[in-house]
Write a sequence for this structure.
């Protein structure tokens, strides 16, 4: 088995594509519009995504739905980065919302931070 993607429902597809490409540095890999079924999918990732052996992020826009509640069971997406503090600075400079600054995880030494996307989903940055 292989991990392929994570799916998030979004209220404004272009806003979310802009966040994940311009702020988080992902590439827009494909968009699939299904007008009869009233949804549009956008797949994003680093490099070529699945084609490079990496997981992808699927953004699902259900036509006419402008917001969702992430819920209490949802946790976060995690991304490995070489320098969490520098990545936070880049994200802030690009207009992103850093909600937990770079620092050690509670009870440990791993450096992490959290960013929030425009729909309220959390993205954890982990120093690798």
């Amino acid at each position: 088995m292989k991990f392929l993607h994570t799916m998030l429902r979004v209220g404004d597809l272009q806003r979310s594509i802009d966040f994940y490409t311009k702020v988080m540095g992902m590439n827009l890999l494909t968009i699939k519009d299904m007008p009869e079924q009233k949804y549009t999918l956008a797949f994003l990732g680093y490099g070529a995504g699945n084609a490079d052996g990496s997981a992808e992020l699927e953004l699902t826009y259900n036509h006419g739905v402008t917001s969702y509640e992430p819920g209490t069971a949802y946790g976060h997406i995690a991304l490995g980065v070489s320098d969490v503090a520098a990545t936070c600075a880049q994200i802030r400079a690009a207009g992103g919302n850093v909600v937990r600054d770079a620092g050690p995880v509670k009870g440990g030494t791993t450096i992490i931070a959290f960013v929030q996307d425009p729909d309220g989903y959390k993205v954890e940055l982990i120093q690798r």
The beta strands are 5-9, 27-34, 39-45, 56-62, 77-81, 97-104, 111-116, 122-127. The first helix runs from residue 13 to 23. The chain has a mean pLDDT of 96. The radius of gyration is 15 Å.
